[in-house]
Protein: Lipoprotein
Organism: Alkalimonas cellulosilytica
Amino acid sequence: MFKLSMTILLGALVAGCASAPSSNISITGEVREAISVADVAIYQVPVPPGQYTEIAALSVTSPSSLSMADHATTEQLIHLLKSEAAAIGANGVILTDLNDVSFTTRKVTYDGVQSAAIDETRFQRKIKGYAVAVE
């Protein structure tokens, strides 16, 4: 019974450690009044038609995972980009980079008698762009 309780507790702790996507913003222009996320458009290079003013450089990264990022992960990251842009008054985001990064981590366990090491390949999706005010 004790092992079962510890297994359930450990599972709950690991599930609680699941992280959310992270974002980074570097202000490069004049911040404007916040707008609705629904009013932010996504543009791919080449740039949007007409004049625009760059407000910030943005990047978002998914939490590391044992599997490649799927469409839902990409949509979640795009929504985070739009949220960050809306908060600084940008009505557009020009996407400049979308890539997957992989890295290997080593998990070492020890049960008091023996140890084991397991290498895991983990994946993250990163998206970069510029928050802009399109005239």
Remarks:
- Residues 53 and 133 are 5 Å apart (CA to CA).
- The longest helix spans residues 71-87.
- Helices lie at 2-16, 71-87.
- The longest strand covers residues 115-134.
